[in-house]
Amino acid sequence: MKKMLREEPGESVPPEPPPLSDREFTGYQQFVYREAGIWLSPAKKALVVGRLSRRLRELGNPSFGTYLRRAEEDSAERVRLLDALCTHETHFFREPRHFDFLARDVLPRWRAQGDTGSGEGKRVRVWSAGCSTGEEPFSLAMVLRHHLPAEEGWEIDILATDLSTRILEQARQARWPVEKAVQIPRPYLRAYMLRGVGSQEAWMKADAHLRALVRFQRVNLNDENGMLGRFDLLFCRNVLIYFDPASRARAVERLLNHLHPQGMLFLGHSESLLGLGTRVRALMPTVYAQRAPPAGVSAARG
C-alpha cells in the first residue's frame, strides 16, 4: 500500500473554489434542465459543488458562475459538465422480475414462433437507455443469447446509450470488479464471463462473443434521435425519475416512437406511465406495450 503523502515544507495546498451562490445554482438548474431535461432540486446544491470542485481546481479556481459561462460557450466543456453531474448507480440483473419475464414468457414465445412479431424475423433489436457502466445491457445480452441461440439463426443487436461520455468509455471495456460476480446467475457467469489472472485477478470481463452483441453511443433523451430506428425491447429504467413531468412526458413520447408496434418498454420499479397518455397498455407493473392505433392510422415511427 502507498503511504499517505505528507505536505512538504513550503508546499502549498490548492485553494478551494469560491462558494456556489444561490444565484449561480439557479443558473446550473436552468442549464442542466435545458440541456438534459433533468431538474436539480435545491437539495442537489451540495452535489453540484462536490462534483464540479475538482474541475474548477484544474482550471485555476474560477467561480462557479464563470465556469458555467464557459460550459455554455464550449461544447466539449458542456459535455464534461453534464458527465460530472450525472448519477450512475446500477448492477447486474437489477430488478430481476424483468429478466424473469423475458426468460419465462417473452423469449420462449419468440423462439417457438421463429420471430419477434416485428416483421424482422429472427433479428432482435434492444435499446438500453441510461446504460451507465454496462451491467444492464450485458445482463440483457446474457439472457437473450442463452434463450435465442446463434446456431438457430438469431441475431441480437443491443444499443447501450448514456448521456455521459466518461461512463460510456468505462462501459465499452466490459470489465468490472470480480465482486460483482455474485449478482450474476451461475449458469450465465460460467458461460459468458472471464476471470482475470495475475495483475487482473480482481477483475472479470465479458467474453468476446457477448461483447460483440453490444454497441455504445451517446444519446441525450432530451433531444430528438430519429436515426436510431425502432426496437423490440426498450429498457429505460430509473432514468425518468430525474425528469420533471414536462420533460418526462416528452422523453416518453420519443421512446415510444422508437418502439416497434409489437415491442415492449421496461421502466424502473419507481416509475410509471400513469397520466402520460393513452399510447400504451401495461403487461405487468412497469412493463408496457403500445396500443394498436385506430383503424386507418399508422403507428408512430422513429
Automatic annotation (TrEMBL):
Enzyme class (EC, first level): transferase
Q: Example GO biological process term?
A: methylation
Q: Where is this region: Disordered?
A: 1-22
| One Pfam match | CheR
GO MF term list: protein-glutamate O-methyltransferase activity
Q: Which organism is it from?
A: Cystobacter fuscus (strain ATCC 25194 / DSM 2262 / NBRC 100088 / M29)
* PROSITE patterns tied to this protein: CHER
Q: What is this protein called?
A: protein-glutamate O-methyltransferase
Source organism's superkingdom? Bacteria
Q: Does the keyword Transmembrane helix apply?
A: no
For this UniProt record, give its keywords in alphabetical order, as a comma-separated list. Answer: Methyltransferase, S-adenosyl-L-methionine, Transferase
The protein's matches in InterPro entries, at most eight in alphabetical order, are given as: Bact_Chemotaxis_MeTrfase, Chemotaxis_MeTrfase_CheR, CheR_C, CheR_MeTrfase, CheR_N, CheR_N_sf, SAM-dependent_MTases_sf
What EC numbers are recorded for this enzyme? 2.1.1.80
Family annotation (SMART domains): MeTrc
